[in-house]
Amino acid sequence: MAPHRIRRNLQTRQVILDSSALLMLFEFSLNLDSELTRLLGVYDVVIPLPIIDELKTLSQRGDGRKSRMAHAALQLAQTFAHIAIAGKGDDALMAYAQTHACIIITNDKALRKRLKEIPRQVIFLRNKKTLVIE
What is the pLDDT of residues 19-49, one digit of tens each? Predict the structure, then answer.
């Protein structure tokens, strides 16, 4: 059995979603709760305020599919706890991840590569249907 499955119910883990993770939930109709429970057991999802700002900007960019998904992602993000972190976008997530024990959910390949250098655990979408942790 994988080590993360053996330890999964021992502690609550902080999970941070970036904008690509929130958008993928609507693009691929993923059930975030069941996928995270399968991977981690107990967890707390938090959304950084810079990600909320990014989603607001995306949702106001016209009437396309991406802006509708960004609007839906923004509504979903309002249901989670928010954390104030300095900076914008990926740089803000990197700075936070360097000083806090957390897991980042992202589909951004460049961010995933940067997070591996810290090192920090990353969850991403595989085959458009399941989340995996690395």
Answer: 999 999 999 988 999 999 999 999 999 999 9
Which amino acid is residue 115, in one-letter code?
Answer: L
d(CA 17, CA 124): 10
Query: 45: which residues sit within 8 A by CB, 6+ positions away?
Result: 15, 16, 17, 32, 36, 80, 81
3-state SS track over 62-95: CCCHHHHHHHHHHHHHCCCEEECCCCCHHHHHHH
Distance CA 38, CA 52 (A): 26
pTM: 0.86
Provide the domain count of the chain. 1
Would you say residue 28 lies in a domain?
yes
Q: What is the pLDDT of residue 10?
A: 59
Which CATH number characterizes residue 98's domain? 3.40.50.1010
